[in-house]
Write a structure and sequence with these properties.
Mean pLDDT: 79
Low-confidence stretches: 175-195
Largest sheet: none
Number of helices: 5
Helix content: 55-70%
Distance between the termini: 108 Å
Length: 195
């Protein structure tokens, strides 16, 4: 054994065992199919037919052909054996179903968390878009501004030409210009002229 090297890149050889081997998944599938069949009306009907035939046979045929006399001990034993196997198979099927339900619930919980996170993200994005749209000039707002300007212009009285508020058409900037390194500066206009 000291000279034998163990390889870790290959699976071990299966050990021989006196106990029988079975695939737990296959056994679980068989138990679920059996439990489903035991829970159907077909099973109850067939079991009732077998019991009725059993009782009728063992009460009406001649005594030498009867295999289970009146207290029907063999029938009771068969039914208790069937029940003793049916109960663990049903429990095994229920345990497998519980495991599947637990996995499904966990997946549903994770999906719900993702949906909630997506919904919150979209809600924040919609709120940001609404805030952004509140600052954008819409067509209706521009139309209302134009309409108010048109009303304002229409309501102003007509002024005669040459009015003091109108700048003369031939006016020029007559302020002296500076020469040298500084840039050319325009004289500051009077605020009344701008209005």
């Amino acid at each position: 054994m000291a000279g034998e090297r163990v390889r870790l890149d290959q699976p071990r050889e299966p050990r021989r065992s006196l106990l029988p081997r079975w695939d737990p998944e296959a056994f679980g599938r068989v138990s679920e199919r059996t439990a489903r069949f035991l829970g159907t009306g077909r099973f109850i009907v067939w079991m009732s037919v077998v019991i009725v035939l059993w009782v009728v046979w063992n009460t009406t045929v001649p005594a030498d052909l009867r295999f289970d006399r009146y207290p029907f001990i063999f029938l009771t034993l068969a039914l208790s054996l069937q029940a003793s196997y049916a109960a663990p198979l049903i429990l095994l099927a229920q345990n497998r179903q519980d495991d599947r339900d637990r996995v499904n619930l966990e997946q549903d919980r994770k999906q719900n968390e993702r949906s909630i996170a997506d919904t919150e993200y979209l809600t924040r994005e919609i709120a940001a878009l609404r805030l952004g749209l509140g600052e954008v000039a819409t067509r209706d707002w521009i139309r209302s501004e134009f309409e108010s300007l048109v009303r304002e212009v229409e309501q102003r009285p007509a002024r005669p030409p040459g009015h003091a508020a109108d700048p003369p058409p031939h006016r020029r900037d007559t302020a002296p210009r500076r020469t040298g390194a500084s840039a050319v500066e325009r004289p500051a206009r009077d605020e009344t002229e701008e209005r």
